[in-house]
Amino acid sequence: MKTKIYGPRIFELTLKGMSDRTIAAEIGISRQTVSNYRKDPEFKEKIRAAQDEMMQAATRRMQSALSDVAGVAIEIAQDAKNAPQVRLNAVQILLTQCRAWTETSDVLNRLSALEESVNENNQNIRNTS
Q: Where does the pLDDT of residue 9 fall: very low under 50, low under 70, confident under 90, or very high at 90 and above?
């Protein structure tokens, strides 16, 4: 990857989702220079890895808050002082999310079982060879 001084800044602004034109104006370089950086395979890989890490960090943060958020929704649904529509909305959100989480958990469990089965089959093939 190119090692000019503005490389880290292009990287940072790219991660923020800025366009080539906006990055170029921000740094004071040509749009073509930004484009050349963004086409570089090593730069692309570093961007992809950083975006993956950002997504994983955001996912971990949201997952850690799920219990609290679900608790709030349950409190809203159970509080007779809330308007019926508010309570109904809370119930609907809880049911929808519960279904989505259950489906995701089921898919992950099935995937894990398939991976285990493939690994066992591969081991059996190696042992018989």
A: very high
